[in-house]
Task: inverse folding
């Protein structure tokens, strides 16, 4: 069983539902809450969400498959997201992404998110993170980093225990 | 000389300025709200009375405020379209899905001065009889969402939000709603679908104008973060005084996001139209010029969807001469005043006021390939011309940047781009993905053709080299 709603999640979800006159509107926020606790959204979690919001599972599943931030499988403990869009690319985003991949034994040319064999790191390109003046920028989980040199990148990886 | 003019970002970067409510109150915070809530009814000449809320709406019209999200549509007009007779609740959504590549202004406001946004929202809600509002913030700004939630809690504690606000009988709740990494949620009807808990497929207009059939099929206002902040200042200083900032029809200030190959990338607030593109790039107060030894190659003036300008490009702009007669004046791209109308007259747009600068080290084909990959990734997939076209353009540019190009690819790209927009798609994403391709290829065509031709020549050479040993081998037998 990959999903068991905790009392904490139940309480959080009930609060979220109260923010909307229509339950369905809470679905994206509920999926965020689930992912925050479990790291990803399993089909059991989809079933649970659907029941909670009085929806068909497909209504939840179609959201899960649309939004890039929502995960359908477990990812690395540390998720490195490097912005790849123009201003960051002009500022060396591709070199930064390659630096992470080389350092962690991943293939910089491979499409999509890649996770190291030990499950510690996931590296992926994401689209514009809206901080183009401090390119190149990236995130690790919820943490945001600006003007990331290769030395800074090494520090960031070193700080992930 | 062009100067910075800080209205929205007046305090954000001051040393010691913090995002908490006490700091905001010390700086005159929520004074405009207190003023707005108690505006007495005004008697009109025809005997009718104008309520305080109606007077704010009128003042926003007088201010000339235009939307800061991208389209530059009149805010007062947008509000005037709201169906107030339907009997349904009216909703307001703050569009904080800042995702247009090149843009990073709303991030500054939300992170550093969240109460300014909350105050602007409360006033806008009061003016439009809104009792429930949402801030739709992009998923990649978890910190921003936390800061806003904290600010909302603080505003509640001071009774700026909640029931019977400051004893006026007015009730309002604001909730933060997070996106999850989809650019299309910045399109207002896509955003509404997303908020409703569906895929963010934009709705077709007509009939689904948000002002009439928006969130849950109720009248809905969707305004950008910076736009809503401006409403606070319009109430504080009066619409007529606000209209004196900037230039006619381009009133107020704009926060310009400057990125790419300049010495000092960053965000700079100016009176709209009172600095030129050249000043923003080169003036030491702004971008500080290009990196040493580099020359300007291209400028994207209003976020990645805006049509690119080529260095040295000249435009004929309408101006009035001393006698008030309209004349055409040749204007260099760098001398264009940074406002809505001049950039539109030059065939592009100021969009979300994001300038991306590219110097002569830039491979222009690579730059367009980068943007096209973005649009191919972000097309919601609802309309065939956009879903397929954006992907074809990206694939064509991928082959052009990976040694597999053809000389004819330049024309092929334009052919695809020309067949996406112009009423073939539900939303303006069709335009947004086509404009970069159309403008890059039109203005730098020789580079696209040369790249494709070089690839073709190289492939022809490789083919003849691989063919040769075979002939030799057969000659030996």
Result:
């Amino acid at each position: 069983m990959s999903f068991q709603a905790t009392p904490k999640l139940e309480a959080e979800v009930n609060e979220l539902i109260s923010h909307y006159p229509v339950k369905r509107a809470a679905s994206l926020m509920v999926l965020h809450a689930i992912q925050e606790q479990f790291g990803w959204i399993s089909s059991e979690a989809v079933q649970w969400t659907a029941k909670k919001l009085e929806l068909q599972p497909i209504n939840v599943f179609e959201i899960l498959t649309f939004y890039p931030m929502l995960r359908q499988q477990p990812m690395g403990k540390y998720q490195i997201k490097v912005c790849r869009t123009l201003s960051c690319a002009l500022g060396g985003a591709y070199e930064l992404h390659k630096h992470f991949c080389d350092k962690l034994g991943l293939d910089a040319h491979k499409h999509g998110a890649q996770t190291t064999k030990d499950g510690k790191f996931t590296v992926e390109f994401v689209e514009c993170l809206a901080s183009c003046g401090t390119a190149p920028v990236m995130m690790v989980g919820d943490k945001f980093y600006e003007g990331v040199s290769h030395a800074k990148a090494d520090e960031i990886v070193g700080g992930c225990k | 000389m062009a100067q910075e003019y800080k209205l929205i970002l007046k305090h954000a970067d001051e040393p010691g300025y913090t995002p908490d409510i006490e700091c905001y109150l010390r700086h005159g915070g929520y004074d405009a709200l207190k003023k707005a809530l108690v505006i007495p009814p005004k008697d009109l000449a025809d005997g009718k009375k104008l309520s305080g809320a109606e007077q704010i709406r009128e003042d926003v019209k007088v201010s000339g405020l235009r939307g800061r999200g991208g389209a530059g549509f009149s805010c007062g007009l947008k509000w005037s379209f709201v169906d107030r007779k339907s009997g349904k609740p009216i909703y307001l959504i703050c569009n904080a899905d800042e995702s247009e590549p090149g843009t990073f202004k709303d991030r500054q406001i939300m992170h550093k001065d969240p109460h300014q946004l909350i105050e602007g929202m409360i006033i806008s809600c009061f003016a439009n009889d809104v009792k429930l509002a949402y801030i739709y913030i992009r998923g990649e700004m978890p910190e921003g969402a936390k800061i806003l939630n904290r600010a909302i809690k603080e505003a509640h504690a001071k009774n700026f939000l909640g029931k019977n606000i400051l004893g006026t009988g007015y009730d309002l709740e604001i909730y933060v709603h997070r996106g999850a990494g989809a650019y299309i949620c910045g399109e207002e009807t896509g955003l509404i679908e997303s908020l409703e808990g569906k895929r963010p497929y934009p709705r077709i207009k007509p009939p689904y104008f948000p002002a009439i059939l928006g969130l849950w099929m109720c009248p809905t206002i969707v305004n950008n973060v910076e736009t809503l902040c401006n409403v606070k200042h319009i109430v504080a200083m009066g619409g007529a005084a606000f209209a004196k900032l900037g230039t006619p029809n381009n009133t107020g200030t704009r926060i310009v996001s400057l990125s790419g190959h300049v010495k000092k990338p960053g965000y700079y607030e100016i009176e709209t139209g009172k600095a030129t593109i050249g000043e923003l790039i080169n003036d030491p107060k702004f971008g500080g010029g290009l990196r040493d030894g580099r020359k300007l190659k291209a400028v994207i003036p209003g976020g990645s969807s805006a049509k690119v300008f080529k260095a040295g490009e000249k435009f004929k702009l309408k101006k009035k001469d001393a006698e008030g007669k309209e004349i055409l004046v040749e204007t260099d791209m760098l001398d264009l005043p940074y406002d809505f109308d001049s950039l539109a007259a030059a065939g592009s747009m100021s969009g979300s006021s994001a300038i991306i600068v590219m110097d002569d080290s830039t491979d222009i084909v690579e730059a367009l390939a980068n943007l096209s990959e973005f649009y191919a990734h972000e097309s919601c997939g609802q309309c065939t011309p956009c879903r397929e076209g954006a992907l074809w353009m990206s694939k064509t540019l991928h082959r052009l940047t990976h040694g597999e190009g053809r000389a004819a690819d330049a024309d092929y790209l334009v052919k695809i781009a020309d067949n996406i927009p112009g009423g073939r798609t539900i939303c303006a994403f069709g335009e947004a993905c086509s404009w970069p391709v159309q403008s890059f290829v039109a203005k730098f065509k020789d580079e696209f053709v040369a790249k494709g031709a070089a690839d073709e020549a190289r492939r022809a050479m490789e083919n003849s080299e691989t063919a040769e040993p075979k002939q030799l081998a057969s000659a030996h037998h």
About this structure: Residues 62 and 106 of chain A are 30 Å apart (CA to CA). The radius of gyration of chain A is 18 Å. Residues 7-64 of chain A form one domain. The mean pLDDT of chain A is 96.
